[in-house]
Design brief:
This protein is α+β, with helices and mostly antiparallel strands. It contains five helices and five strands. The protein has a five-stranded mixed beta sheet with strand order 1-4-5-2-3. It is globular, with a radius of gyration of 14 Å.
Amino acid sequence: MSDLRAELTKILDEAEWEWLIPHVQRDAVILVAPELNLLDVGVAIASDHIPSVQQWIEQQLITKPTTVQVGEWNSDAFSELRQRTKRFNTLIVQPYVLVQEIAAV
C-alpha cells in the first residue's frame, strides 16, 4: 500500500478549471470535500477499499460535480473580475480524475 501511496503522491498536481472540462464532459470527475485528504481518497479508490469509499459517498464527501457547481466554475473562469482562473488539486486514479477545490486567495 505504501508503494501505491508513493506512486499517487508523484502524480498529485494542480489544474486549472479549463483543463478539467473534457473530463467533466465524460463524467470522470469526482469532487472531494476539503475536509478529506485527496491522497487518502485516491489510495482508497485505487485499492478498492469499499467501506471508506461507501462511507464518503453516503456522507456526500465525494460526489460528482453538480450542474450548478460546473456553471459557477465556468463563470469564475471567464469572469473579467477574476485575476486568477479557478484551480483544483487533482489526482488521476483511472478512470477517474479526483479534484479538490483550491480556495481563492
